[in-house]
Design a protein that fits this description.
Layout: H1 7-12, E1 45-50, H2 57-73, E2 79-84, H3 89-101, E3 106-109, H4 118-126, E4 130-134, E5 144-148, H5 150-165, E6 173-178, H6 184-197, E7 202-208, H7 214-228, E8 233-238, H8 241-253, H9 267-275, E9 281-284, H10 286-301, E10 312-314, E11 322-327, E12 329-332, H11 338-342, H12 349-352, H13 358-364
Parallel strand pairs: 1-2, 1-3, 3-4, 4-5, 5-11, 6-7, 6-8
Antiparallel strand pairs: 9-12, 10-11
Helix pairs in contact: 2-10, 3-4, 5-6, 7-8
Amino acid sequence: MRRAAVAVAATAMAVSLAACGSAKESGDKSDSTGSSAAAKGDDIKVGLLLPENKTARYEKFDKPLIEKKIKELTNNKAEIQYNNARQDASLQAQQVDTMITNKVDVLILDAVDAKAIKNSVQKAVDQGIKVVAYDRLAEGPISAYTSFDNTAVGKTQGEALLKALGDKAKSGQIVMMNGSVTDPNAKQFKDGAHSVLDGKVKVGKEYDTKEWSPDNANANMEAAISALGKDKIVGVYSANDGMAGGIITALNAAGIKVPVTGQDAELAGVQRIVSGEQYMSVYKSYPEEASVAAEMAVALAKGEDLSSIAKDKVSSDSAKDVPSVLVPVVSLTQDNIKDTVVKDGIYTVNEICTGKYKAACDKLGLK
């Protein structure tokens, strides 16, 4: 199969995800990162570093999808070395050092701390290792980047929250639970949400949640309830599903029932949407993102350019005009669970509609 079939994202994609062709000879010429781009065959070594395991997506989706696509693109000849940093930036820096020692040809890196990893990226590039920034735009001389349109994620969340609030948007306050400041995506989510929410609803309390932790989100929500009063809160912007779980626990304990947003379409989040505890999530096509990252990594390891894969350019403080692919996103509510995560094979109805969720699933026609 050329790539995972994700109908919703595939319809919206405007980029061409062309398969990697034959390696092009490039002799001893160096690219803009200063590393050699000698052509190679399928016998490549790929390092994969993911940031944490509290969010379900990384081990359940990203890792196996990327590994499967790399194997497919290299006739099962590529060697893949993997590590998860468990939300520890220092550990991830050590893992990059290990990948350098092991002489990988290319590194797919989802940074714990996008700024702190800069020196590690430079060290890898200095040793001739190309770096694909995955999901988060790591600082340093990266060669490629793929993620979702993160500003659009925040806008999608904000628009959904306003729709859920209706006239109540004018009569109360919302709490904004943003992600970690070490994640550059979190700022883009926040900026996108503010561009929609500002002037239309009052933000009573706003937090940048350390480590994207559900426990920290829970504590922040308890503090917000105490400060604002439970009768004043009409909704909660939560940047992802994990934090939404902690937020909803605090809301339930206080007897508050208001719309809560999310992101990642985690199974627990989808189940809360089914039951009505959570209003929405943002469904992001991990198969699409993983496929692009694998194609980029294999092409770079083989000494090929990315012109057939990446049509966009993205810049950071330390890298300009990086070849990039931004994958579109979808607002996930009760209305389209069947047409998104079920249709695309992310979850089965049986996985979603367990135990206490079965009756709610039946009402929604999830059978």
